[in-house]
């Protein structure tokens, strides 16, 4: 195998630009935040989650704890790999053409994790919990995918977050944030994919609970596309009426 030729054939810019937009924005924000902290442009002290400081007006702390995964290390690379892998696969799969729904999923995860974190003893950065949420939802939506760990353990995709949790426990990492991510992921999965089926069977009026607000659709360009379709459709109907 010619490793040099493989490296020359890999176009980093093309790979980066092929990442779907929402995933690319999140990945870039996390990478740049970590880089700025590594070169001491930003002090991590101003990023960590603190509900008292949030109520005092430092509202950026609702988002910044999800952008810092620690300084460059094996743990950072581990988190970045699963973040970009499952974030991307979800956006290219279930949320293809529906970026506003994917944005809603991210904000649902951020909100739920921020609500649950105060019940823990002490946790400053929350990105790993959001990564576990992505991993859990991706696994439940790809139940037939077979995976292996180190070529030894083989399992189906829904068990991936549990395997990751067990591995983290074995190497001495805290698992409470991983558990929160799994709980939040299961909550999202139920509300997004299970509740509509139950509501349809029982004839409830409200079939969906997780509907992106109009502002999300507008920011993602979906509202503009809908308006364009509505403007074009009557003209096509008028042409057919003329022809008749």
Automatic annotation (TrEMBL):
<keyword id="KW-0256">Endoplasmic reticulum</keyword>
<comment type="function">
    <text>May be involved in the degradation of misfolded endoplasmic reticulum (ER) luminal proteins.</text>
</comment>
<dbReference type="GO" id="GO:0005789">
    <property type="term" value="C:endoplasmic reticulum membrane"/>
</dbReference>
<protein>
    <recommendedName>
        <fullName>Derlin</fullName>
    </recommendedName>
</protein>
<keyword id="KW-1133">Transmembrane helix</keyword>
<feature type="transmembrane region" description="Helical">
    <location>
        <begin position="177"/>
        <end position="199"/>
    </location>
</feature>
<dbReference type="GO" id="GO:0006950">
    <property type="term" value="P:response to stress"/>
</dbReference>
<keyword id="KW-0472">Membrane</keyword>
<dbReference type="InterPro" id="IPR035952">
    <property type="entry name" value="Rhomboid-like_sf"/>
</dbReference>
<dbReference type="Pfam" id="PF04511">
    <property type="entry name" value="DER1"/>
</dbReference>
<feature type="transmembrane region" description="Helical">
    <location>
        <begin position="25"/>
        <end position="47"/>
    </location>
</feature>
<dbReference type="InterPro" id="IPR007599">
    <property type="entry name" value="DER1"/>
</dbReference>
<feature type="transmembrane region" description="Helical">
    <location>
        <begin position="149"/>
        <end position="171"/>
    </location>
</feature>
<feature type="transmembrane region" description="Helical">
    <location>
        <begin position="104"/>
        <end position="137"/>
    </location>
</feature>
<feature type="transmembrane region" description="Helical">
    <location>
        <begin position="59"/>
        <end position="84"/>
    </location>
</feature>
<keyword id="KW-0812">Transmembrane</keyword>
<comment type="similarity">
    <text>Belongs to the derlin family.</text>
</comment>
């Amino acid at each position: 195998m010619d490793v040099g030729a493989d490296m020359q054939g890999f176009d980093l810019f093309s790979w980066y630009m092929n990442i779907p937009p929402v995933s690319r924005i999140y990945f870039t924000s996390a990478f740049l935040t970590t880089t700025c902290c590594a070169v001491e442009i930003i002090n991590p002290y101003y990023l960590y989650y603190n509900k008292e400081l949030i109520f005092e007006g430092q509202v950026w702390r609702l988002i910044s704890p999800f952008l810092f995964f620690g300084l460059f290390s094996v743990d950072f690379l581990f988190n970045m790999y699963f973040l970009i892998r499952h974030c991307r696969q979800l956006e290219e799969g279930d949320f293809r053409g529906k970026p506003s729904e994917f944005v809603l999923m991210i904000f649902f995860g951020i909100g739920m994790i921020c609500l649950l974190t105060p019940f823990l003893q002490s946790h400053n950065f929350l990105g790993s919990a959001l990564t576990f949420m992505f991993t859990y939802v991706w696994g439940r939506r790809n139940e037939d995918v077979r995976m292996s760990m180190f070529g030894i353990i083989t399992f189906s995709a829904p068990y991936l977050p549990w395997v990751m949790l067990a591995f983290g426990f074995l190497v001495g990492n805290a698992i409470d944030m991983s558990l929160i991510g799994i709980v939040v992921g299961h909550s999202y999965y139920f509300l997004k994919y299970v509740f509509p089926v139950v509501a349809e069977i029982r004839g409830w009026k409200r079939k969906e609970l997780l509907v992106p607000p109009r502002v999300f659709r507008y920011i993602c360009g979906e509202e503009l596309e809908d308006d364009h379709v509505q403007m074009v459709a009557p003209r096509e109907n008028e042409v057919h009426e003329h022809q008749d």
